[in-house]
């Protein structure tokens, strides 16, 4: 599977389809005015179709994350554009869209992994978005973080979170370029004893990550690629 497909969400959408917003009022006492209505988010409003979700996500990436100019990437390459995915993932609407879209992908694989996580700090808001939306949908999914360096106190672990050796996991990323960050996260997760099944990234720059990970037997799926933004890989 490449970027987010159109048939990934039927079972997940059904979890959201019957959920709405509960409304309650608090009555004032004495001479105090009646407080305004308070709206409590009971669950989620009906899920948009895959195509509508993906179109909205692409639009957010194009308007908030895509920067033009000359940039040096974490991989060391120079590029004529930069994708600051955190401008989308740390936005309330963007976070919900990313979390829901990744859950759709995870369910399309047949069964949910035990956990999602990746290299701090880039993957942290992605992990949080997915775990939060899983909680909204009452899905059993945990998150974890992979440290670049272990803590010098406490457990001194590279991997943090409620995961155990033997857990099936998916590595998440905000942006993939060559796949180096994903490989490091995979190695640290496997050293801990986790079973890494695949990598899911919010944005793929189509600069070799898929091929690099495939060489390790790990598939890469994406929500958005640079082609969705009208950019060809040779322009990066």
What does this structure look like?
The chain has helices spanning 10-17, 50-65, 86-89, 92-108, 124-136, 180-192, 209-214; strands at residues 21-24, 38-41, 66-72, 78-83, 115-119, 142-146, 159-160, 168-176, 195-204, 220-225. The protein is of the alpha/beta class. Strands 7-6-5-8-9-10 form a six-stranded mixed beta sheet, sandwiched between helices. Helix 2 crosses helix 4 (92-108) and helix 4 (92-108) packs across helix 5 (124-136). Residues 6-11 and 17-46 have low confidence and may be disordered.
Question: How are the SSEs placed, and which strands pair?
Answer:
Layout: H1 10-17, E1 21-24, E2 38-41, H2 50-65, E3 66-72, E4 78-83, H3 86-89, H4 92-108, E5 115-119, H5 124-136, E6 142-146, E7 159-160, E8 168-176, H6 180-192, E9 195-204, H7 209-214, E10 220-225
Parallel strand pairs: 5-6, 5-8, 8-9, 9-10
Antiparallel strand pairs: 1-2, 3-4, 6-7
Keywords:
single chain, 236 residues, alpha/beta, 6-stranded mixed β-sheet, two-stranded antiparallel ribbon, 10 strands, 33% helix
């Amino acid at each position: 599977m490449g970027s987010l497909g159109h048939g990934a969400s039927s079972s997940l959408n059904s979890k959201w389809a019957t959920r709405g917003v509960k409304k309650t009022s608090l009555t004032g006492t004495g001479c105090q005015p009646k407080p305004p209505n308070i709206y409590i988010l009971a669950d989620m409003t009906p899920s948009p179709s895959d195509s509508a979700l993906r179109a909205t996500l692409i639009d957010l990436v194009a308007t908030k994350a895509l920067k033009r100019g000359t940039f040096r990437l974490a991989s060391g390459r120079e590029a004529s554009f930069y994708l600051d995915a955190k401008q989308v993932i740390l936005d309330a609407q963007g976070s919900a869209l990313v979390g829901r879209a990744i859950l759709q992908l995870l369910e399309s694989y047949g069964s949910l992994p035990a956990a999602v996580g990746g290299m701090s700090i880039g993957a942290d808001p992605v992990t949080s978005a997915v775990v939060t939306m899983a909680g909204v949908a009452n899905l059993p999914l945990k998150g974890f973080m992979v440290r670049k360096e272990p803590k010098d106190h406490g457990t001194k672990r590279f991997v943090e979170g409620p995961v155990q050796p033997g857990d099936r996991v998916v590595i998440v990323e905000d942006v993939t370029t060559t796949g180096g960050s994903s490989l490091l996260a995979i190695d640290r997760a496997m050293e801990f004893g986790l079973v890494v099944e695949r990598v899911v990234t919010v944005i793929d720059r189509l600069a070799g990550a898929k091929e690099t990970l495939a060489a390790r037997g790990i598939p890469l799926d994406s929500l958005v690629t640079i082609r969705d933004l009208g950019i060809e890989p040779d322009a990066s």
